[in-house]
């Protein structure tokens, strides 16, 4: 039995789900023996992601094969940003390089998907993520991409 490598054309887009609200990065549980503020915010964000996933993914069972994910984490431009368009664009460009980093957003979202979209995040074999600033409120868009079962192996 040989395993065939998957090429980009072998992947099928399954679904894109957008979750309204500011994305929140992954945070560690404890700060001096109790949950920190960042952890509580992350849990609330994960619950919102799970609510939208359950609404748009179920009644399908969790995937059991390889999964690829594409994330867009959009943060709303705060009122403290410059008001004129050129200065506002510069502000957004500068602040994209600041914390929180995109991998911490990604970890929080991936953990929220466990048990709903896939059984375990070890099934995620490819990830593309970006963070942006946007007018209005923030949001998280998640594209869930699966492979066809016939591509798993060849005899």
What can you see in these coordinates?
The structure is a single chain. Residues 150-155 have low confidence and may be disordered. The strands form two sheets. Strands 1-6-4-5 form a four-stranded mixed sheet, covered by helices on one side. It has a two-stranded antiparallel sheet with strand order 2-3. Helix 1 (37-57) packs across helix 3. The chain is built from three helices and six strands, in the order E-E-E-H-E-H-H-E-E. The chain has 155 residues and is of the alpha+beta class. The chain has helices at residues 37-57, 85-96, 102-113; strands at 12-20, 30-31, 34-35, 67-76, 124-134, 139-146. It starts with 11 loop residues before the first strand and ends in a 9-residue tail after the last strand. It has one domain: 2-Layer Sandwich (60s Ribosomal Protein L30, Chain: A), CATH 3.30.1330.70.
In short:
By secondary structure, the protein is an alpha+beta fold.
């Amino acid at each position: 039995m040989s395993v065939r490598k998957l090429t980009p054309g072998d992947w099928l887009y399954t679904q894109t789900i957008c979750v309204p609200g500011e994305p929140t990065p992954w945070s560690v549980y404890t700060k001096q023996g109790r949950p920190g503020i960042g952890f509580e915010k992350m849990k609330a964000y994960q619950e919102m992601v799970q609510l939208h996933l359950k609404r748009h993914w179920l009644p399908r069972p969790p995937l059991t094969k390889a999964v690829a994910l594409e994330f867009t984490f959009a943060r709303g431009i705060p009122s403290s940003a410059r008001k004129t368009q050129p200065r506002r664009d510069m502000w957004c460009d500068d602040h994209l390089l600041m914390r929180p980093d995109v991998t911490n957003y990604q970890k929080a979202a991936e953990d929220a998907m466990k048990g709903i979209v896939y059984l375990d995040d070890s099934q995620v074999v490819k990830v593309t993520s970006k963070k942006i600033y946007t007018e209005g409120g923030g949001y998280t868009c998640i594209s869930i991409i699966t492979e066809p079962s016939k591509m798993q192996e060849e005899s």
